[in-house]
Amino acid sequence: MDTINLFSPVQLGAYSLPNRVVMAPMTRLRAIDSIPNALMAEYYSQRASAGLIITECTMVSPMSNGYMNCPGIYLPEQIEGWRQVVDAVHQRGGKIFLQLWHSGRVSHSSLLGGKQPVAPSAIAAVGELHTPAGKVVMETPRALEKDEISEIVEQFRSGAENAKAAGFDGVELHGAFGYLIDQFLQDGSNQRTDEYGGSVENRARFLLEIVEAVSSAWGADRVGIKLSPSNTFYGMVDSNSKVTFAYVLEALTPIGLAYVHLMEPNEIDLKNQNVLNPVTPLFRPSYQGTLISNGNYTHETANSALANGDADLVSFGKLFLANPDLPKRFKLNALLNEPDFRTFYGSGEKGYTDYPFLEQAAS
Fold first, then answer.
1. Which run of H or of E encompasses 15?
2. Considering the chain, what is the average pLDDT of its residues?
3. N or C end of the chain: smaller count of CB under 10 Å?
4. What is the pLDDT of residues 163-207, one digit of tens each?
5. CA-angle at 289, arms to 295 and 324, nearest 5°
6. Residue 234 burial (10 A CB sphere; 0-12, 13-18, 19+)
């Protein structure tokens, strides 16, 4: 039997993919008034040779917002904007999932029309945000009332329906990096005493309710979820992340999702000696479905993870950002463009759609 590598075909949920090179979701902040545009369509379609593209985080409601110039999926104009993106990717033979997101406490009233951010508990996130009023420290959020929780679950379901209307191939739930789903899951940010707090079963309830709601719109085999067991962004912490995330992965197994997307710790996370490292091999036994792994992989380390059976696909962030034809470059062992950190976020094509393809670089 041939060794599995990045160019082995794979069945991911409902889809047969030609390769296992995934474009990771990356916030780029190029939407205009929360509406996707032609520049975004060009950016994503340039990268259509990925086995799967996962979009940047996308708001399911106005109260989801955590950053300026993020796209949404709750207005007709946003659906139309995303349709332009999806059509461009499909015309080049690609598959694309929309990442559904609620920032929760990682926000500020100046981004929310003057309203206080919401979270499972009134515990502020750690850090600062860029807002229309400049850089600000994040405010203490308001703890959600129980009936508001079901409203947010419905917003995720509605966002999934809207993604289907825009023509996407599926959706990914953003359950990572200290945003709302993650805030409910980890006990450092969730101090509730009702059925959404306390035990790991209760803290995972919000996540599992959203998975069920979104799966009812799409079918579970067109839904993925992103999790980051070692993330320490925005002051995230859990008293026993191994138990917490093993429970979630075991609960997700029988649902039959397209995939779970697991984040390895990054340099910031690793400054905390208590984080789990590495993540994917540790949790592989807890989840019996398809696993995508992400975390500063190279061509070589990705092939190694696939050959070892640690992961089924590997997602690439910065490398895909700087190399629109990343699969081709991997296949030819070609030189890679270096990412320009100064242009990761912001406006315009510089550092977005102007990275050269291999043929352009050669000429």
1. strand 15-17
2. 96
3. N
4. 999 999 999 999 999 999 999 999 999 999 999 999 999 999 999
5. 40
6. buried
Query: What residues contact 268, with CB distance under 8 A and at least 6 apart?
Result: 232, 233
Question: Do 325 and 358 touch, CB atoms closer than 8 A?
Answer: yes
What pLDDT was estimated at residue 262? 98
* Whole-number pLDDT of residue 1: 59
Strand-pair partners of 73: none
Checking if the pLDDT of 160 tops 90, the result is: yes
Distance separating alpha carbons of residues 174 and 183, to the nearest angstrom: 11
Q: How far apart are CA 350 and CA 303, in angstroms?
A: 31
Q: Is the pLDDT of residue 295 over 90?
A: yes
Contact 153, 180 (CB under 8 A): no
Token reading at 205: 């309830």
pLDDT tens readout for residues 242-266: 999 999 999 999 999 999 999 999 8
Structure tokens at 57: 């985080």
Question: Are the beta carbons of 23 and 92 closer than 8 angstroms?
Answer: no
The one catalytic residue among 43, 44, 67, 179: 179
Give the pLDDT band (50/70/90) at residue 362. low
Is 234 an active-site residue? no
| Dihedral in degrees, nearest 10, Cα atoms 15, 18, 24, 30 | -90
- Give the position of tokens 């100046």: 110
- Asked if pLDDT for residue 313 goes beyond 80, the answer is yes
Rounded-to-integer distance, Cα 315 and Cα 54, Å: 9
Counting every residue written for the chain, the total comes to 363
